[in-house]
Design goal:
globular, oxidoreductase, EC 1.8.4.11, single chain, 5 helices, L-methionine:thioredoxin-disulfide S-oxidoreductase activity
Length: 161
Amino acid sequence: MEEIYLAGGCLWGVQEFLKHLPGVISTEAGRANGSTNTTEGSYDGYAECVRTQFDPEQVSVEQLTDYLFEIIDPYSLNQQGHDVGKKYRTGIYTVNPEHLERVKQHILAREDAAKIVVEVLPLSNYVQSDQEHQNRLSLHPEDHSFCHLPLDLLYKYKNKS
């Protein structure tokens, strides 16, 4: 099992989408690369993210990158849908240097690489989100109205994993 941290705007929809992907073992809503180890207090520079544990024999970091790109606008800086602000920036974070290099090369190989503003950085800090944010759309499907992802995209892989 390996893990990577994926940021794609509001974490509710990102987690709901990722947890249904083939090869994804578990997900957890959290905050990447902030400067504190708490969810309390003022904004500390974090990006909303989903800690994604996966089986590399079933899904690669390149494939996970492609899946993320299905649900984000990779050209939008600090905004996804109606969520605006630095905490909604897109990013791929990991403590595994090989993952970083593979993701960077994968993005550079795209024809639109020059326009992509997705961060690809080492994970320097991770804080688990409060319990109320974990699996939010599974537990409270009525909250989908706050999510920028259409239902058909959100559940595209639900019964295929």
